[in-house]
Structures are given as C-alpha cells and as structure tokens.
C-alpha cells in the first residue's frame, strides 16, 4: 500500500511521540497507521506498509490490544485477523489516559501513601514528612478530580473541556479585572 507524504509524516511523528512517552516507536507507528486507515488491516498489510518484520508487527499488535487501543475482527471467507484502532477520538483519548493512570499514576500514589506512613514512625525529619505529605495530597487531589470528571457523561466532559479557563467566571474570585 502506497502512503501519501502527509500520511507518512503522521505515522513518523506518532512514532516519535510514542518513543517520548516510553512506547516502542514501531508499536506507535502501527497504532498510527491503524488510526488513520479507514478500513481494518491484516498484520501482513501492516508489515508490508510500514516495512516492519512480521514478528515485530505481531508483538506490537498484542501490546496495542493489551492497552485496549486496537481491536481485532474477522471477515467472512478470510481466516486472518483484521485490526483497527479505537475509532472514536474521545474514546481513544480516554483509553490512553486511563491506561496511563492505572500503569503509572495509581502505583505512584500507592507508593507515596506507604512512604508517608513509614515516614511517620522511622525518624524522618518533620519538614521532609511535610513535603512527602504535600506531594501525596496534591497528587491525590488531581487523581480525585480526574476520577470525578471521568464519571460525568461525555457531553458534560466535552462542554467542560470546551469551556476551558472560562469556567473561572463562574467560580468565587474567578472573575478577572
């Protein structure tokens, strides 16, 4: 399959972005390809299009499926699996944010809670305990906010995002000037 220059650049940039986020570049490129392609693709199609080893594509697809970013489907008369990215952009962003929260943020909160408890009895200086507590409380505040917002209906979430900083007009001391 021949890709346009813009499509190639999108895939290359997505791969670079993925690498900066700690995702293997080829895995991010596979996701980018599936994200922009209008129809499901087989692993062979992906391998040929991106010029990646079939084993690399297979491993990348397994990783993307584990992250719930890619879905597999079957087609009548074809024994091969066909892959697509999550199609809805709101759902895609939600899957990424929730996945990163579960893999990175939540374990950090749990570790900070344990450290804060340990610091209360192990001779940690008061000022250090205070910084640990402040770090935990601030991170917990953002996590609580995220969980509250994530439970809101999509329409409300979208309205809040579109409203942006203008929400300050509705809050105490939020009016400027």
From TrEMBL:
Record-annotated HTH marR-type domain positions: 22-80
Alphabetized UniProt keyword annotations: DNA-binding, Transcription, Transcription regulation
Organism superkingdom: Bacteria
Gene3D superfamilies: Winged helix-like DNA-binding domain superfamily/Winged helix DNA-binding domain
Pfam families membership: MarR_2
GO terms for MF: DNA binding; DNA-binding transcription factor activity
PANTHER family: HTH-TYPE TRANSCRIPTIONAL REGULATOR MJ1563-RELATED (PTHR38465)
Family in the record: Belongs to the GbsR family.
Protein name stated in the entry: HTH-type transcriptional regulator
């Amino acid at each position: 399959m021949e890709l346009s220059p813009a499509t190639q650049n999108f895939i290359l940039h997505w791969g670079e972005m993925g690498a900066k986020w700690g995702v293997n570049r080829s895995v991010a490129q596979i996701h980018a390809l599936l994200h922009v392609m209008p129809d499901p693709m087989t692993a062979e199609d992906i391998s040929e299009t991106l010029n990646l080893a079939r084993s690399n594509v297979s491993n990348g697809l397994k990783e993307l499926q584990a992250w719930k970013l890619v879905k597999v489907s079957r087609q009548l008369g074809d024994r091969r699996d066909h892959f697509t990215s999550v199609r809805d952009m709101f759902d895609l962003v939600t899957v990424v944010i929730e996945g990163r929260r579960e893999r990175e943020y939540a374990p950090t909160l749990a570790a900070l809670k344990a450290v804060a408890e340990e610091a209360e009895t192990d001779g940690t200086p008061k000022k250090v305990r205070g910084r640990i507590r402040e770090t935990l409380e601030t991170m917990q505040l953002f996590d609580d906010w995220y969980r509250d917002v994530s439970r809101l209906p999509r329409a409300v979430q979208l309205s809040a995002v579109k409203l942006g900083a203008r929400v300050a007009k509705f809050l105490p001391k939020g009016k400027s000037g």
